[in-house]
Amino acid sequence: MPGSPCDAACVDTDSVVVGDVEFATRLAGVATVLLSFPVVSVVTPTALKSTMQRRYAHALLRCCGMRLRVIDERGDASPGRIYARPDDGVLIVSGHVGWTDIIAIAAVQPVSFVARADLVDWPVLGLLARKMRVVPIDRAKLRTLPDVIRQIADRITAGERITAFPEGTTWCGRAYGTLRPALFQAAIDTNTAVQPIRLQYRNEDGSLSTTPSFIGDDSMVASLLRMLRSRGITAEIVLAPVEQPGTSRRDLATRCERAVRGQVELDFAAHGVLESEEARNTHKTPVPAVETVAATAQPVARIA
What we know:
Pathway: Lipid metabolism. By secondary structure, the protein is of the alpha/beta class.
């Protein structure tokens, strides 16, 4: 089973500053979003569903006190600040910090996720997971892995955007695990490009925030309450250049891991993780000089 040394000591609490009135307003906002989403989803015309889903994701981010920043590093050939053009299947891979990853990624463009099998039973996220048509994976039952890979392959062949977290577990964001190669086989089997994304959470001063981390013995309720009281956090998504599948899933995983990590601030010593040669050569980089936008109910392609 994938494991991480991150625990409650990794989690920042400095961002937990919202007062009771704003907290109650945010909590009511989450309830409104979750209760209205199924109804609105049914009555929304197919052509408008993508915009509607992005707006709901933005609304949830706003309830969690977050802004969204999207940076596109793919050059002139990119489809805009989205993962892929409509009806183009793609496998999206990212590091994994917490449940807010799902909301931030969906705020860029609606996607489905490879997620733990019990996610549909979680409070708050369970309903969204069912609507997003998650591909369930039980990492304790490796014999089911070929079927999961087959489902991913079938769905990206059908033009769907599927997001996976190949680390297999959550880390605090100041240290991270290895991207395991198994799920990359779906891209190789279908000759589908992979879109790596670099997802980080930053405080107002540009430093990495671990407040959204869902690690250790953290419960879903405690994590949600912490986020509802947070302020000044930006979910930063960097769209790294697309990686072609090639013929080796291990090579593909290595290339995507390099893209997903980029140059980040690392603190391996605090987690008991041996530092790699590549990590030792990384250095702290300034926050990119791009506009930070509020997580409003507007299409991200227009505002990010």
